[in-house]
Amino acid sequence: MKWLAYGAACAVSLAGASALAQKSAADAIADYRASLQDGNPADLNAARGAALWNKARGPKNASLQGCDLGKGPGVVAGAAASLPRYFADADAVMDVESRLVHCMVTLQGFKREELTAKPYSSDGQKATEIEDLVAFLYDESRGMPIAVPTGHPKEQQAYQRGKQIFFFRAGPYDFSCASCHSADGQRIRLQDLPNLTKTAPAQAAFAAWPAYRVSQGAVRTMQWRLYDCFRQQRMPELKYLSPASVDLIAFLGVNANGGKMAAPSIKR
After folding, report:
1. What is the pLDDT of residues 136-160, one digit of tens each?
2. In sequence order, which ranges of the chain are alpha helices (DSSP H)?
3. pTM reported for the whole predicted model
4. 152 is in an annotated binding site
5. Which CATH architecture has domain 40-267?
6. pLDDT for 56-114, tens place per residue?
7. CB within 8 A of 167, min separation 6: which ones?
8. What is the C-alpha radius of gyration for the chain, rounded to an integer number of angstroms?
9. Nearest of 258, 232, 252 to residue 95 by alpha carbon
10. Residue 10 assigned ligand-binding role
11. Where would I find the Cytochrome c domain in this sequence (predicted)?
């Protein structure tokens, strides 16, 4: 009995030490991010994005100041915190990036296929115009409450499709988004995997994108985040601005309602 009691005590001690080590690692990463936030390089992206937003450009020589992001033409404060949403002029639910591209096409005369051919910069390359503009738009929603609407039937449908995509298992690993993000306490190495089916972790995750990735030296948008998740699942490539991508963002955004935007954030 003595040995059983000793073994049980050791097991409890080791479990406690493991939990402490995990907590310490998570805390260390959080402290590291906080220390860098005041000097977040994404601030430079946002400044460039603001200049692009106000500059007359494209075949129509127009600025984006007339772009309606859901709060009226030219209103950017808090707009990103309320997207995706339904837009009657396009008869579609759009996220920040799909609405931005829509405005660049309709107001400035750019060709959609040219804008979407390379929306993400490669490691070490200059940021794309879309990355800079997205950084600006989200910076204008920093601290604003997340309020992704569900009042329109198409918004409700987008949410339900996004939920189905989140739990859909496929690919060579039989993975889904939920494989990593529907349970508490999961990790990959030092990286916590938030349970996106619960309110608090969903709020924290949604609020933090787009983000400046230190390891890549680049701002990465929400569309990129989903694209990379699909890549890691070995799923077919998620097409930029596809309805599936917008639906999934709608699902994540509604789950995060009530949180406060903190993007562009900074991540490893």
Report:
1. 999 999 999 999 999 999 999 999 9
2. 2-37, 42-54, 96-106, 112-116, 129-139, 153-167, 177-181, 199-207, 222-232, 243-255
3. 0.85
4. no
5. Orthogonal Bundle (1.10)
6. 999 999 999 999 999 999 999 999 999 999 999 999 999 999 999 999 999 999 999 99
7. 176, 177, 178, 182
8. 21
9. 252
10. no
11. 157-268
Of 34, 92, 80, 28, nearest to 53 by C-alpha is 80
SS (H, E, C) 59-100: CCCECCCCCECCCCECCCCCCHHHCCEEECCCCEEECHHHHH
Question: Is 241 in a helix, a strand, or coil?
Answer: coil
Q: 209-228, pLDDT tens digit by residue?
A: 999 999 899 999 999 999 99
Q: How far apart, in whole angstroms, are the C-alpha atoms of residue 242 and residue 56? A: 28
Q: Give the C-alpha separation, 246 to 252, whole Å.
A: 10
How far apart, in Å, are the Cα atoms of 33 and each of 16, 134, 145, 212?
26, 21, 22, 11
- Residue 225 known to bind ligand: yes
Distance (Å, whole) CA 116 – CA 268: 26
CA dist 27 → 22, 183, 184, 188, 260 (Å): 9, 20, 17, 16, 21
What distance in Å separates the CA atoms of residue 113 and residue 105, rounded to the nearest whole number? 10
Q: Which of 209, 80, 94 is nearest to 102 (CA)?
A: 94
